[in-house]
Structures
1.
Amino acid sequence: MVAASGGKFTGTGRLEMEGDDCSFPPDSSDGHSQRGSVASSATLSRAQDVLVYLFGDSAVHLSVEGLGSVTVQELGRSVREALHVPESAQDAFAFWLCSPLLELQLKVRHQPYKLCRQWQDLLYRFTEASEEDISQDEPCLQYRRNVFYPKSKELQIDDEGVLKLLYEEARSNILTGRYPCDPEHWMGLGALSFALDEGTGLDSQHFTSTIREKKLSSFLPAHVAMGSGGLLSTLRGKSSRQAGLEQNLLEEYRKISTSAANPPEPTQLLHQYLNTCHSLPYYGCAFFFGEIDKPVQGILQRGKRKAVNVGICLEGVYVMDVKEKHVLLGLRFSELSWDHSYPEEEGDSHILWLEFDGEEDGTPVNKLLKIYSKQAELMSGFIEFCVELKSASEGGAAAETDGEASVSQQSASQDGSSKNGRGGRRGMLHRQNSVVCSRVHSLNTISYVDNGKEIKRLKPKRAASFFSRQASAPTYSAVQVTESLEQG
C-alpha cells in the first residue's frame, strides 16, 4: 500500500454506498478505533451504488454487488469500461482512498470497503491528526494517475479521454501549489487551461470578461491569484496586480491562438499542457507530509519546525515548503542515501534521514536532513521500491546494449566518477533562483566528514549504513494492513 498525505483534496467526496442499511454507527468497543459496525452479509450482497470520484469534480456511478468483498481489480474493469479507457492505457491509473488527512494508492487485490472500515485506524497510525479530526474524517474512492506509471509511456498516449483525465489531475496539482512552478510555467499553463475550457477564438474583451467571471484562481495557482499581501495590501494595489496578471495571461493566450494557421485540436493542447508538467521533476509523485527543523537564528527560535511535503517518484525525492510553494531539496536516487528510524522514547518522532553531498567553507562534506513524520516508514519503503523498479528497468536496458555499457563502465571506473556506492561522490547540488531548484542553504542539516564515521551518532542503531543502503537492492516489503485490522 502506498500512502501519502498533503493539502486538502480538491473535489473532496466520500465513498458513497446508497441504501437503507448502509449508515453505520460508530464502534466504541475499541478505545482507539471508531470504525463503523459491520453491515449484514445480506445487505452487502445486494447491489449497492458506489461513486468513484475523478479530478475535475466528476464521478463514475457504479452499481456493485457483493460490495464487502469486491476488489480493486474488479472495480477497475467497470470504471475503465465506463470511461472508455483503452487497454493500452489501463496501467496509467490506479484507485486511491483520499481524504484531507491521508491518501492511499491501492493494489489490485485490495478491497476498498474493508479499507474504508479501517480508515480511522490508518489515520492513527500514519498521521498526527487529533482524535476529533480523525473521528470526522471520511475517505473517498478516487480513480487517478498510477504513481508507478513511467512518464515516457504517458508521452505515447493519444486517446483524448485519457489525456483529459491526466490533465485534470495535473491542473489540480498546479492550482493548489502541490507542483511548484515558475511564472513562465504557470502563466503558460493557465493560458492552455483557458483555451481548453473556452476555445482559442475569443477576442480581448470576451477574454477579460470570462476571466473576471470565472476568477483568476481557476487558471493560476491560488497563491499567485490571491497574492500574499492579505489585509495589509491596499485595494488599489491588489486591483493593479490582478490587472497585470490578466494582461499577461491574455498575451500567453494570444500566442496559442496565433501559433498555427488552424486552431489547435484539444489533444494538441492537452499534450502541450502535460509536456510542460513533465518538465517539473516531481510530476507524478506520491506526496507525504512531514516537518523539518528550521535553521537556528537565535535562542528563541531553537526547536521550531517547518511543514513540508515530500514528493517521491520513480526519479527521486523532493522536499517542498508547504507555505512558500518552492523546492527545498531535490535529489535523484543517484544523489542520495536514506534510512528510517523509529522513536526510541515516548514523545520521539519517526524520522526519515536523507544523506547527500555538500560543502562547508569549501570542504566536501556529507549532509543529513531529518524529516519528522509518522509516514517515515512508508517513505523509506517507497524509496526502496522505486530504486528497485528503476534498477530493474535500467538493467533490462543495459542487457540490450551490453557492449556499450561495458565500455562506459570501464571509462567511469578509470576517472573515478561513479555516482553510486562507495566508489565515488554523488553529483553536487547547486542553488538557483527557480522554485524548482534546491535551497540547501535554507536547510538545517547535520554535516560530517566524508569518511562517514560520524553516522554512528544517529539513534536508534540501524542494520545498515547509508552507503550499503544505497548500493544494495534489498527486497521491498510493502506496508500491509494487519490481519487484526481486516478482521475488525
Note: The chain is about 35% helix and 20% strand.
2.
Amino acid sequence: MPAAHKRAFMDIAGFPGVVGVIDGTHVRIIAPSEDEAVFVNRKNFHSINVQIVFNAACKILDIVAKWPGSTHDARMLSESGIRQLFERRYVPANCHLLGESGYPCKPWLLTPYLQPRQGPQRNYNR
C-alpha cells in the first residue's frame, strides 16, 4: 500500500516518499454547557478540531475527532496514534507525511520552511 501512495504523490507533485497529508479542520458545534471556553477556536467559534490524514486520492487514512476547538494541531499530533506508528517504525522509514507549518518538522513529517531561501528551500515549499 505505501508504494501506491508514494507513486501517486510523486505523480502529482514530484515529491518522493510521501504517503499522506495531515491537517486539522474545525467542525462547528453548539456551545457545550461544560468547559465551553476550550471549545472556542482561533476563529472565535465553538468547534471540535479534527485531525485527518488522507492520501493522494483524498481518501481518509486516519481520523481523530475528539479535541476541543482550542487545541493546536501539533498537540493533537503529539498525542495521536499516527505519530506512534511512524516513531515506532511500524511505517517504513522512507515514508513521509506532508503537513503545514503548524506542525513540527520530523524525519517522517515534512513541513514548509517558514522563511525559505532562494533555490532548494523555495522549490521544496512550492
Note: Helices lie at 2-13, 73-78, 81-87, 120-125.
3.
Amino acid sequence: MIKNLSISVSSKEENRGSVEFQIFSFTNKIRRLTSHLELHKKDYLSQRGLRKILGKRQRLLAYLSKKNRAHYKELIGQLSIRETKIR
C-alpha cells in the first residue's frame, strides 16, 4: 500500500504546497507518531503533537471535501483513512 502512495505522490513532489500533498505528509507523520506512542505510552508531548497534527489534517480534509469532492474521495481511498464526520 505504501509503495503505491509514494509512486502517486512522487509526481506531486513539485507541488508540496498542495492540499493533497499536505494531507499525505500529515498522514505519514500521524502513522509514525502512532507507532512511536505504542512503545512510549507516557510520552505526553508526542501525544499533544499528534493531536495537533490530527486537527490540521482534519481541517485540510474538510476544506478539500468542500472544494473538490472527487479528489477528497480519491485521497481518502488511497490513504485508507475514514471519512470525516459532518456536523
Note: The radius of gyration is 14 Å.
